[in-house]
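User: Here's a structure from my thesis project, written as structure tokens. My advisor, Dr. K., wants to see whether a designed sequence matches the one we expressed. Can you design one independently, without my sequence as a hint?
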């Protein structure tokens, strides 16, 4: 039982050769700035700043706060030469004074999609500078001093990321959720797309930082004759796409290697029309950063039918093997695994075993018979539950949870979804690890990862026919998130019940075309099709009124529809499994052993009743400082920003934020003073305050070192 597991402390080891290798590999950036998503090109979220220590962190106080429009905010800002670069909730780019929060400029991207954007990229050579920002399907080059577009880049300062992906690029949903990687005079990018067809085919592309011209590309969804094409059917359906890189990449500049994590192929939950392992979906792919040439790959899930993307960027670090320092890359997964590889060759540094998994699936589906499982480290999230691992807050809660579980398919990890019967998915569809990323203490090789630890459930809807085309379109394009019964899983997936009077046809067209939050846009739908969906939704007064007329032909190409995302909740709306529901973990990647594990977060109302340290779902990741501090927000309901001791996980400081800090923080220094800043917003907490802000902390001005 993972929630009761105790991990014995491992002695802290300092190896001068090991520490020196880490230091030498990171001398490329100013210690004062946070000029790369992930802190530096290694993506290790480590800072050598040392003003804030274990001894004085408890005196941190708010330095400034910058409020923006309400909405979701997931951005990890950049700080370059005392300027704080970030996004607003509607995808405008802002520049603030990093010491006061005073706005210097705001660039209007004219975006109307409200897609999540998690960071920016900066390039500089001498006095020439570019700030790269994405909004909708555009990549912009902005002058960081003025906030004006660099007109020599693309067309009037921007390029269309849909260009070249299909014969009808205007019908594709393409967004650069996570910023690109800058290498020499290139910006290397991936993108987010839809999770049902038609979806954009995954590609990694490198654009010239001066002109925006395409310099190279690597097809993550291979064309016939390319590497990996034999893992797909000879003739793919027109709607097949995905295998895209949306979570972010990291760069080894000395080796000229870029490390690319990828997502699943479409459709996410039924792959009967794409038999095979489906490379390079669900993979970590190493490419030559100058040319895009293939170096090596590892596939974490074969023929994914569970939406098990690699959802966070990998981390570059050095680990000790047989007394020598080895350049490594570590990749965390939604399943709760950490895979660790030798950087040059992709050789696993801990054994990975192809393990037999269940294959009883929906008719037409051909699941892989084995999946890769690392021997070490042990999973950082539970991967299976039973009736004894359900919440026992009250007898009523436990009884209700047991009744629900008894009516579900509850198998081992990688159990295919059942047809017309809910299947437990543990960890849930949001992990395990999520997009916030992980951090590393360079001096010891400690890998810090926060994890969700709650169960979800879903099923495949058996083929049926419908008489209303609006319903058919809804089931094909909308039900995977909002549910076949339209009840959703708020706040991430809003209910689509009771819409009459809440949204007009004009707004519905804009919303479906452009998307919002977790919802990518569906530009392939015509205006008339969207109005059919809207009209059908307006006719439905409650989920109980849904019916299926058997007199017409089936609407779905595959014949199966995903039921929608559902959390396994108790009778009061809390997770139905026993706590912890979210954890923070420190793993020694030299040995694969855990240093410590702690619940992360609490529900204020449960804490008031004496149920503390339950942990909660958490989004956004940690950072680590050279003084042994781990800073993390991430928790949704308590709105806390915390600092832990990396040696033992002891909580050293916490502050209540105005909204949930569901983003990864940064730390930087200006004028000799260190700051720690985080984005926060109220979008994920239905009962909490609504708004969004950036908040920065520093030591009191009278603090003496």
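Assistant: Designed independently from the structure alone:
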């Amino acid at each position: 039982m993972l929630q009761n597991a105790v991990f014995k402390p491992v002695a802290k080891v300092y190896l001068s050769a090991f520490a020196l290798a880490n230091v030498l590999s990171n001398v490329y950036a100013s210690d004062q700035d946070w000029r790369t998503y992930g802190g530096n090109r290694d993506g290790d979220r480590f800072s050598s700043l040392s003003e804030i220590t274990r001894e004085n962190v408890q005196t941190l106080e708010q330095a400034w706060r910058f409020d923006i429009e309400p909405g979701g905010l997931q951005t990890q800002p950049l700080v370059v030469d005392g300027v704080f670069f970030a996004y607003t909730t509607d995808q405008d780019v802002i520049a603030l004074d990093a010491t006061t929060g005073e706005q210097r400029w705001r660039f209007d991207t004219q975006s109307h999609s409200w897609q999540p954007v998690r960071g920016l990229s900066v390039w500089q050579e001498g006095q020439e500078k570019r700030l790269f920002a994405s909004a909708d399907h555009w990549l912009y080059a902005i002058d960081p001093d003025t906030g004006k577009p660099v007109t020599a880049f693309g067309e009037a300062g921007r390029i269309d990321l849909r260009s070249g992906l299909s014969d009808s690029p205007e019908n594709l949903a393409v967004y650069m959720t996570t910023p690109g990687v800058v290498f020499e005079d290139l910006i290397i990018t991936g993108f987010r797309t839809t999770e049902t067809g038609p979806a954009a085919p995954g590609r990694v592309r490198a654009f010239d930082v001066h002109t925006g011209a395409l310099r190279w590309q690597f097809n993550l969804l291979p064309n016939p004759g390319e590497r990996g094409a034999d893992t797909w059917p000879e003739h793919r359906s027109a709607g097949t796409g995905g295998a895209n890189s949306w979570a972010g990449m990291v760069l080894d500049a000395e080796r000229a290697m870029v490390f690319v994590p990828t997502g699943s192929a479409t459709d996410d939950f039924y792959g009967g029309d794409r038999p095979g392992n489906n490379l390079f979906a669900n993979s970590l792919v190493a490419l030559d950063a100058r040319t895009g040439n293939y170096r090596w790959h590892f596939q974490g899930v074969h023929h994914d039918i569970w939406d098990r993307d690699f959802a966070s960027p990998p981390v570059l670090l050095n680990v000790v093997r047989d007394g020598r320092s080895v350049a490594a890359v570590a990749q965390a997964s939604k399943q709760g695994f950490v895979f660790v590889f030798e950087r040059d060759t992709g050789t696993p540094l801990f054994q990975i075993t192809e393990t037999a998994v269940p294959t009883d699936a929906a008719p037409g589906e051909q699941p892989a018979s084995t999946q890769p499982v690392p021997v070490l480290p042990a999973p950082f999230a539970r991967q299976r539950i039973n009736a004894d691992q359900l919440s026992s807050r009250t007898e009523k809660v436990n009884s209700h949870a047991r009744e629900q579980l008894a009516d579900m398919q509850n198998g081992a990890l990688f159990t295919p979804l059942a047809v017309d019967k809910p299947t437990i998915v543990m960890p849930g569809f949001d992990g395990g690890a999520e997009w916030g990323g992980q951090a590393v203490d360079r001096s010891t090789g400690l890998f810090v990862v926060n994890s969700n630890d709650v169960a979800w459930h879903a099923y495949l809807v058996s083929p049926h026919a419908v008489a209303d085309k609006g319903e058919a379109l809804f089931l094909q394009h909308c039900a995977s998130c909002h549910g076949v019964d339209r009840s959703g899983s708020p706040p991430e997936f809003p209910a689509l019940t009771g819409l009459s009077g809440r949204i007009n046809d004009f707004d519905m067209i804009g919303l479906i075309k452009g998307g919002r939050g977790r919802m990518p846009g569906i530009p392939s739908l015509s205006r008339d099709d969207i109005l059919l969906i809207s009209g059908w939704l307006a006719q439905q007064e409650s989920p109980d009124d849904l019916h299926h007329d058997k007199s017409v032909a089936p609407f779905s190409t595959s014949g199966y529809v995903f039921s929608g995302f559902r959390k396994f909740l108790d009778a009061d709306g809390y997770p139905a499994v026993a706590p912890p529901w979210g954890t923070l973990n420190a793993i020694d990647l030299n040995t694969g052993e855990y240093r410590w594990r702690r619940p992360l977060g609490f529900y204020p109302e449960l804490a008031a009743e004496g149920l503390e340290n339950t942990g909660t779902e958490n989004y956004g990741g940690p950072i680590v400082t050279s003084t042994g501090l781990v800073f993390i927000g991430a928790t949704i309901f308590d709105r806390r920003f915390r600092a832990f001791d990396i040696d033992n996980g002891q909580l050293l400081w916490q502050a209540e934020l105005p909204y949930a800090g569901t983003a990864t923080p940064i730390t930087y220094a200006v004028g000799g003073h260190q700051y720690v800043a985080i984005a926060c917003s109220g979008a994920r907490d239905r009962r909490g305050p609504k708004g969004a802000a950036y908040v920065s902390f520093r030591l009191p001005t009278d603090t003496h070192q």
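When you compare it with your expressed construct, this may help: The domain at 464-555 is CATH 1.10.760.10 (Cytochrome Bc1 Complex; Chain D, domain 2).
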